[in-house]
Amino acid sequence: MRKILVSILVLLTALTMFMILKVAFYQPQQEMAIANKAGNAIKTQTTITNYVNIATNQNTAKKVVNQTKNQISNTNHLENKVAKETVPVDNLPVYKISEKNISIPILIYHAFQTPQPKGDSSNLFSTQERFEENISTLLNDGYTFITLEELYQYKKGEIGLPQKVVAITMDDGWLGNFTEAFPILQKYHVPATIFVVQDLVGTPGYFSWEQAKQMYDSGLVKLHCHGKSHIDYSTVSKAKLVADYNETHSKIEEVVGEPVQKIMAYPSGKCTENTKKWLKEAGFEVQVLTKYGTVNKSNQLDLTALGRIRAEQATGKELLRSMKNHNTVRLQE
Ligand SMILES: [Zn+2]
Asked: How far is Cα 43 from Cα 98, in angstroms, rounded to an integer?
């Protein structure tokens, strides 16, 4: 019995020692395994975080690329739109005055108002819609719009012009030139010449000098003289004629802040051989009339007697017919 008890005691002691040893030797290994697992997990998480960062960066980059693509596409779209709406001037054949007998129609407009006012017995008013129709019809027919300054350079042999050219002029300085016609000039990138009457600028129904400057600064609108006041200059003295036109010309130069070529239009087209001579001597080499139905030819381009075509009431088709046949558009003087 005693032996049995001793054996059991020895066995228990051995078992206890074994457990102690097991704990002593195996626990650190388990902890190391856990620590390794934790370390691996941290590594994995870091890798995932890196991937997430890369993915986020890639998404941001993709967004930027897409935005840029959209911007490029918008720019292309706008460029195509502009290309469709304007004539590729660079591609047109160009002729010097000595080379080709070019007809140079000069269109004359006055006021613009939408809707068209009633009782316009002098047919002075056009509308924005009609003006746009005129411009787009002429552009589609292959016309290039020029300024009277370019006409002067052409006459002097300094520049060439395409076969089909046309100039837009507007007389008196009506407010509608600024509010209705100017946006169309900008839309189609077409130049025009406005003849201002100095005493009318800024009065009811007429644009201001600030508005004139705004149009001039667009690079599309040239400002020239239509007299200090809207009087019959064929009956005044040489001194009064020259002084009035010089004063308006100086005022225009002061407003735009740079030298302007001397180009003038007679109120109601009233002129004499004397007025032409006197103004030419004063530097106004380009003088336009309101003589209707005349298409200026390059081989007989008398710059002191440029005829014009009344365009206010005409459709684009009617203008094309008038320009082709060298006669008036419906209206009579
Ligand atoms: Zn006038």
From this structure: 85
- State in Å: Cα 226 to ligand 1 middle: 7
148 pLDDT band (50/70/90 cuts)? very high
How far is the centre of ligand 1, averaged over its atoms, from the C-alpha of 91 (Å)? Answer: 36
- 266 alpha carbon – ligand 1 mean position (Å): 7
Quote the pLDDT of residue 332: 39
Average per-residue pLDDT in the chain?
85
**Mean of the pLDDT values across residues 262-280?**
95
Topology at the third CATH level for domain 88-325: TIM Barrel (3.20.20)
Distance in angstroms (rounded) separating the CA atoms of residues 224 and 252: 7
Domain boundaries, the chain: 1-85, 88-325
Could you read off the pLDDT of 76-91 as tens digits, one per residue? 656 555 544 444 456 7
Whole-structure pTM value:
0.72
**How is residue 235 annotated by DSSP?**
S
State the distance from the centre of ligand 1 to the C-alpha of 231, rounded, in angstroms.
Answer: 9
CB atoms within 10 A of CB 165: 21
Q: Which residues surround ligand 1, an ion (CB under 5 A)?
A: 171-172, 267
C-alpha 233/C-alpha 248 separation (Å) is: 14
Q: Does position 223 have pLDDT exceeding 70, yes or no? A: yes
Kindly list the distances between the CA atom of residue 204 and the CA atoms of 175, 200, 208, 271, in Å, as whole numbers in the listed order. Answer: 8, 8, 10, 28
